[in-house]
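Support request from a user on the community tier.

User writes: "When I paste my structure tokens into the form, the page sometimes reloads and wipes my input. The last time it worked, I copied everything first. Here is what I submitted, just in case something in the input itself triggers the reload:"
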């Protein structure tokens, strides 16, 4: 009998609370009833306690709602937590690799342990000290050319005859020819002398590293992976080579990003500050590039603008097709990249040259992704850029040049003796 009275009183309490608060659309029964109780302060604390006591019997599932990850949802959820999770996982995985490297190899950073010759250090220091000299020579050439041009322009402003005016114009053109000639000789001598000394007189390929952080990463993490890859490359174990490329890709990416920040952000901005150079757009957001072409236009802006002005545009102006002009630009860049890598390692094997020339078909493949308006297309193009450039290209090139060095001077050459 008491049980039936309790049920009856409970039902009457619910009907009373629902009668006093009749919302048109319930979102959360407990919240609605609680707000109604707060609004009727004159009903007293007893009714408020009774209303909160039976809050659990209100209907919660009273309207149509969709899951946050469903396509039908009207509110786009934030994935900031997943991004934080990925960062934490990335840090944890790399921390595990650091601990594993320390447990397996210990501390490999030792300046005295490397085979640096005194001649390498002396010649390398002299070459670094001579690098700014061609800049001062270029400044002197420009200063002399400006003085000559100023005199020529001043004489042209005077009332001269046609013959004298043609003579002044010819002198003006000859001044610029001499200027271009001396600039060419200056740049060629700087490149030729440096390349000759590095290739024939400096034995160690590490001389010239300006970033201590890059050297530490290379000595502690990249060197063991490269050394362990020698026997795999010698027997052409494809599966093991791919595994080494994947393992080396992480450290090569970190070294590459550190080199980018050291050169383009720190060194060039410091040089621009000293020289009071205002245009400091040395790069743009190349990391968001939807194609390889967009990457090369935004990665190294000074070199890109130089090539466009002095190689690409003159060739197009003389009737070359844009593709042929681009082919010539990348051919010249490929030669310079091969010299940049092959001369310090004493191995001009053409890997850097082939890697640069392979950019042309990749640019053609990823060009459509740059033009699409869909965000997915740009993501695909950006992913192709990262995979081809950092996951495959750089670590594979490092492995091949390291193997060529070892085959010429290191352990691989001793095996075949």
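"...and here is what came back when it finally went through:"
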């Amino acid at each position: 009998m008491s049980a039936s009275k309790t049920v009856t009183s409970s039902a009457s309490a619910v009907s009373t609370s629902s009668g006093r608060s009749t919302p048109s659309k319930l979102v959360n029964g407990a919240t609605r009833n609680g707000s109604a109780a707060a609004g009727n302060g004159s009903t007293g604390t007893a009714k408020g306690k009774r209303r909160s006591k039976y809050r659990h019997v209100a209907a919660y599932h009273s309207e149509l709602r969709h899951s946050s990850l469903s396509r039908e949802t009207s509110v786009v959820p934030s994935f900031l937590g997943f991004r934080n999770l990925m960062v934490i996982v990335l840090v944890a995985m790399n921390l595990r690799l650091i601990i594993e490297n320390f447990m397996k190899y210990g501390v490999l950073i030792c300046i005295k342990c490397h085979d640096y010759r005194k001649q390498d250090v002396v010649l390398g220091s002299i070459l670094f000290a001579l690098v700014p000299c061609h800049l001062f020579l270029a400044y002197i050439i420009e200063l002399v050319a400006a003085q000559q041009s100023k005199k020529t322009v001043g004489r042209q402003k005077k009332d001269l005859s046609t013959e004298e005016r043609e003579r002044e114009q010819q002198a003006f053109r000859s001044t610029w020819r001499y200027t271009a000639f001396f600039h060419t000789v200056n740049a060629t001598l700087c490149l030729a002398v440096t390349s000759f000394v590095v290739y024939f007189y400096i034995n160690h390929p590490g001389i010239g590293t300006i970033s201590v952080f890059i050297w530490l990463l290379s000595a502690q993490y990249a060197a063991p992976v490269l050394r362990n890859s020698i026997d795999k490359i010698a027997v052409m174990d494809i599966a093991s080579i791919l595994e080494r490329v994947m393992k080396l890709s992480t450290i090569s990416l970190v070294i590459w990003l550190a080199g980018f920040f050291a050169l383009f952000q720190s060194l060039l901005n410091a040089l621009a500050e000293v020289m009071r150079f205002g245009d400091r757009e040395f790069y743009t957001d190349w990391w968001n590039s939807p194609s390889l072409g967009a990457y090369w236009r935004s990665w190294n802006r000074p070199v890109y603008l130089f090539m466009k002005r002095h190689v690409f545009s003159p060739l197009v102006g003389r009737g070359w097709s844009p593709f042929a002009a681009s082919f010539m630009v990348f051919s010249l860049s490929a030669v310079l990249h091969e010299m940049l890598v092959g001369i310090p390692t004493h191995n001009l094997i053409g890997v850097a040259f082939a890697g640069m020339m392979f950019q042309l078909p990749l640019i053609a493949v990823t060009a459509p992704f740059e033009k699409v308006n869909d965000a997915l297309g740009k993501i695909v193009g950006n992913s192709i850029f990262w995979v081809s450039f950092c996951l495959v290209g750089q670590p594979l090139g490092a492995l091949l040049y390291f193997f060529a060095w070892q085959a010429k001077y290191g352990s691989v050459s001793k095996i075949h003796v």
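Agent notes: The reload is a front-end session timeout and is unrelated to the input. The mean pLDDT is 73. The two ends are 105 Å apart (CA to CA). Escalated to web team.
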